[in-house]
Design a protein that fits this description.
Elements lengths: L11 E6 L2 E8 L4 E8 L5 E4 L5 E7 L2 E9 L2 E9 L4 E4 L4 E6 L3 E8 L14 E2 L7 E2 L5 E8 L2 E8 L3 E2 L3 E3 L4 E5 L5 E3 L6 E2 L5 E3 L6 E4 L5 E8 L6 E3 L6
Antiparallel strand pairs: 1-2, 2-3, 3-10, 4-9, 5-8, 5-10, 6-7, 6-9, 8-11, 12-13, 13-14, 14-22, 15-21, 16-23, 17-20, 17-22, 18-19, 18-21
């Protein structure tokens, strides 16, 4: 994780023990995004006890997760392994311990609005690409929804080679984009396209954007979107050159 990225000014970064770090990327009422870069030799284990449902997405590496839930003096324990590009909801007030199974792990912590996200039958459900339903997206973009609910969505999006998206904006929603492979460029239609930072980019509502992939290989992005009304995506009409 390149904390010195030129587009990360204003982010809150602090140490978790020597080389391991945590970076808070966004803190809003309806969206919280943080990334952690963990190293086995300095931070072999990590403890989480959140007051709100929190989605953990593994950017790189493998972890072993143990979760404990206390209900009416009864302790329930569950365990699973999460690999690269897999995720899981950590229900509020549960006690979670992760153990690094690889020398380095990068993960993203996501919280949306305070709406309850984890239903009883979905508690400790692991979200992985092999189980996701592919949805043909706009302009040949392929989309795999990791999670969708009243407070927003978390999806994986694949952009084909030599791709240029139509300029648009979200009427009411904030979006966070994180490249998972390759280099994505983002244009606002006014300035030259800029590469998306390695820590991702937060795009506010009504901010114009278009994702570009000029390379010969497809790229995959993690997209987090806050709640939006129907027809929240508005195309931007541009004058022909």
């Amino acid at each position: 994780m390149n904390v010195s990225d030129q587009n990360t000014l204003g982010l809150i970064s602090y140490s978790l023990g020597e080389t391991s770090k945590r970076v808070i990327i966004c803190q809003q009422n309806d969206l919280f995004i943080a990334q952690e870069s963990l190293f086995q030799n300095t931070t072999p284990t990590r403890f989480y006890h959140h007051q709100a449902d929190t989605f953990v997405f593994i950017i790189k590496g493998d972890i072993y997760l143990q979760q404990s839930t206390q209900q009416n003096a009864h302790l329930t324990e569950k365990e699973t392994v999460l690999k690269t590009h897999q995720g899981i909801w950590l229900a509020a007030h549960t006690i979670n311990n992760i153990t690094l199974l690889t020398p380095a792990v990068e993960l993203c912590l996501i919280r949306l609005s305070s709406t309850r996200h984890v239903e009883e039958n979905d508690v400790f459900q692991k979200y992985l690409l092999a189980q996701l339903r592919l949805i043909p997206g706009r302009n040949h973009i392929k989309t795999w929804p990791l999670w969708q609910g009243a407070s927003g969505s978390i999806t994986l999006e694949l952009y084909p080679a030599h791709f240029k998206e139509t300029l648009y904006y979200q009427k009411n929603a904030t979006q966070y984009l994180l490249p998972l492979n390759g280099v994505a460029f983002i244009s606002n239609g006014k300035k030259a396209p800029e590469s998306c930072p390695t820590l991702g980019k937060v795009i506010t509502k009504q901010e114009r954007r278009a994702v570009l992939n000029p390379s010969k290989d497809s790229i995959t992005l993690l997209s987090v979107m806050t709640a939006q009304q129907s027809k929240g995506r508005i195309l931007v009409l541009t004058k022909p050159n």
